[in-house]
Amino acid sequence: MKTRKIFLGITAIAIGAGLIVSSCKKKEEKDSDTAAASDHNYAENVSNDITNIGDQAGGGSGNSLTSYKGEPNSTFMVSCADSITRDTVNHVVTVYFGTTPTVCLDGRTRSGTIQFSYTGGVHYRDSGIVITVTPINYTVDGNQINGTKTIKNLGRINGNFNWNVQANMQIVKANNGGTISWSCNKTKVLLNTSSVYSGPNNPINWANAKIGITGSANGTTANGDNFTATVTSQLVRDFTCAPEPSKPHRHPFIQGTIDFTPGTKPTRHIDFGAGSCDNDATVTINGTVYNITLH
Predict the structure, then answer these.
(1) Contact 20, 5 (CB under 8 A)
(2) How many domains does the chain have?
(3) Is residue 22 part of a domain?
């Protein structure tokens, strides 16, 4: 086993890890393709942020998004969302960030509008609800976000809430940087529903939640290279786990595996471990195992 200490962004989900590790294998093969990892990671982050924004906007009150993932000490997005409007007749929530790009509290710059159309319920937690997400002149970090995303609450399966998440998005990068195409079909399960959900009149207590993710994603990078990412063993994120005291709102995946294939390059097998609250993972390429540190 070879050991490498590699510092990664937590939201990279270790997709980036696979390709960063590839640069450590210079003696065995030349593999310097980092564009696929970077573009997939960015699309994943943008998609996840949209879901989080919709959950807060649809379930809160007033004109601020004050609880990223329900964490009471977080003020994610409060400084840059100009307004939230709720059409209770047509079941549409609109989040408006203004026409001038503004830095949000998560460090990303946003402008434009995200519209969330609801059928079958009014909250992310409502069984059967289907949420269709449409960005309108929406930009993140100067990049134009197009496409659609659909989230369906599948109800409680084996006692736990499940959601199906499908997306077909395009990200037109700033400064003529090309277009990322990104699609996914995933299932998200609230693994401890009975502990963090006390009934339809109360929001999910995300601060103590544990979620599992399965499914796959694919697309093309801004350079036109294909990639695929498949969860081979359910990914687990525990929102009570924050390995770094200085980053209390960063919750890494602590269990599960992913196979990530960038074009014709070797598949990277990423393993997050067996559930310990740490930033440790391994990446296997062509039979060689590398230890990585997630940051």
Answers:
(1) no
(2) 1
(3) yes
